[in-house]
Amino acid sequence: MTGRERLIATLNHQQPDRTVIDLGGTSQTGINASTLYRFRKALGLPEKPIKITEPGQLLGEVDYDVINAVGADVIGLLNPVNFFGYKNENWKPWQMDDGTPVLMGGGFEYDEDEKGTKYVYPQGDRSAEYSCMIPKGGSFFDSVPREKFDFDLDEEDLTPLEDFKEDFSVVDDETAKYWEQKSYELYNNTDLGVVGMLGGGALGDAAVIPGPAVKHPRGIRRVDDWLMAHAMYPDYIKAVFRYQTDVMLKNLEIYKQAVGERIQVVWISGTDFGNQRGPMISLSTFRELYKPFYKEICDWVHQNTGWKTFFHTCGAIYDFLDDFAEMGLDCLNPLQLSANGMDPVKIKENYGDKFTFWGGGVDTQHVLPFGTPDEVRAQVRERIDILGKGGGYVFNTIHNIVAGVPAENLMAMYDEAKK
Asked: Which InterPro entries did the record assign (predicted)?
């Protein structure tokens, strides 16, 4: 079977000839650029600077030679504009703190203080306040809140649509043309499954609420304030989500016209609803504020295309799974089995016919970075044996492969996954 055939089979809960593997197909199934640079060397591939296509997490572009070397079956149709709001073009050399040579898009503009902390400007515009920062030696950027909200305001005095109009907009013709051309390239020139990284549907995503790509954010932007607003200003939250969903539905229509059925999966949301110990919000709050809008988005996809919907949501989210299924979620990532209550046997038994599990293949907090190759192999085999029965499984680590992972552990992981 080809990679595309494997992906289609497993999405339809049919057993492929081997486990489907993803490396770099999405912004949550990728690899740190420094780790990728060393992994390329271990694979015997030519040394070259790594293009950082997702600068917020310092994720490197996984080239076809790496895809072929590890036996990956999936590739991502990425957006031309990245997390910081500038285009991935006009590449320029940069060096990570550990000396790794990389290439950044021409819009990457930052300042550095005496401690080595770097501050990045949204859309590469130095006239705006910086929106993200990374300490010296850090592995990813954190958003920097630029707005402090006044909770003494009455809800009727708030302006949700005005606050978030810069965050969500209908894509232009140039972007649609890029999607069309890139989808033909990936579909016709490879035999890989294609994930369309459309984005725009991540309701209340803690990574984007502060506005890392927005020059002049307004309204409720601190994550703690945002969570408080669920209780204090629910109509504000609903108004933001209504606006965001309306834009998302328009962009889905444009996306469909641009890529047709040349993708098999569409990335919808990266909002985390759990942490290591439990949910981020109550199930009742999710049902009131989030679920209706997500269902509207998923219904549109299923009624108008043959695509499967992809959601990334970290943490202890077992109690949300029934609702996720009801709203139309097809592919669940990253399946954080290290979080409380996330038992893989129980999840597969109770929800294996409802979701394609995309991830969970090895623990990126402990086993992959600090275990031995044999320990990595053992966990990979255990997870595939549990999650891969009857299809409905794409192998990937729990979230991205982080900085500092030994190359020999990656070699062991992919070798075992292909067996």
From this structure: Methanogen_methyltrans (IPR052024), UROD/MetE-like_sf (IPR038071), Uroporphyrinogen_deCOase (IPR000257)
